[in-house]
Fold this protein.
Amino acid sequence: MSFDYLGLSEQLLSAVKDAGYEEPTPIQKKTIPSTLQGRDILGIAQTGTGKTAAFTLPMIDILSQGRARARMPRSLILEPTRELAAQVEESFDKYGSHSKLTCALLIGGTDFAGQVKKLDKGVDVLIATPGRLLDHMERGNVMLNGVEVLVVDEADRMLDMGFIPDIERICKMLTKKVQSLFFSATMPPEVKKLTDTFLKDPKEFEVSPPTQTATTITENLVRFKGNDTVKRQVLRHLINEQGIKNAIIFCNRKKEVKVVNKSLNVHGYSAAELHGDLHQDIRMETLGRFKDGDLKILVASDVAARGLDIPDVSHVFNYDVPNNPEDYVHRIGRTGRAGKSGTAFTLSTQADKKYLDALLKFLDKKIPLHKVPDEILEDRKSKRAEKSQKPAKQKKSAKPSSKSDSSDKENTNNATPIIGMGDHVPDFLNR
Ligand code: AMP
């Protein structure tokens, strides 16, 4: 089925053509005609399914008539993260190049006064994170009684991030006439309650059940015993073995994101970190470099990376098994997008066992095992430290050996032997 039958205007059909899309994705096929008819929508779809265009395209047509008034946006799109909000703005730029619609982005970490200026001029499409929007509303910079279309994207992520009360507050300020479009990858009870309250007789569409991972992704599980040093060795081995084009490495905690990123850089990989502690400008710059191909590896936390639209990621690595099984689907969904093929690896040691059991139960399938050579599983760092404590070697090791294992720079840099303490070298001195 081509885009021609969805009811979109000629202008949009040519924008879609310019974007290189040949046919609508399932969520676009299902939701665009009903959205154009003015129906409320509940779309259960994960990222990577083309859901941004599913709401952006009909909105451009719906808003093509009419004019925006100062501080009274005509439509509102709520996104859980700044990056997602910025991506939606890019979509409007891309698909709306033929239209005269004005967009404003209200996200934290960027110029507040500049945002007020834009609002003053009047905007057709306001894209916001809930916190920053409420901030502006409390200062009287923006009023929602002119909103004709509301989009709540990634509703389940909003829940994870504690935004549901904010969404409720915002929804209550809209008039009864508003057309609401809600999208969520999963439907936990809190999201169900929200949609039951605010959607009027919605058309419901589900494009892939939450446990289903895209068929374009080859999944691999790497099970082994070992500490963090071994885990990083395994990660580097896989990166080298796979000849990756680019990759996202997910870690469960920010602390690990930082350690893994630092370690990869020490080993000469082109990597950078992405997590919630970083300033917005740095996050956007990092993302831009990754999209441009200037940066090959992004080490990320779930919150920072959820829903990011980065086309053509060849590999996803789960450095840890995610604590929340649903995050697995989202993480590996960064690759194999829009019909392209991708590869995902999940590393699991004894420390991940509990989460791995939960994940396999959730997925209700096995993930094929991928073997790594035994030598990769030897803790080279400890071995070197042990060797350096043997008296015969201690003499030589006063000078760094030129024969040291260059494949593990972490060791050569950090495990400088400490002489004269016998077996009782405190761990922190060996780091
Ligand atoms: P999304 O799920 O909105 O994050 O979109 C995922 C990716 O699919 C984006 O890179 C879009 O540009 C791309 N995309 C959206 N619609 C289509 C389509 N009909 N055909 C091919 N690619 C698409």
In short: Residues 21, 24-25, 28, 47-53, 309, 311, 337-338 surround adenosine monophosphate (CB under 6 Å).
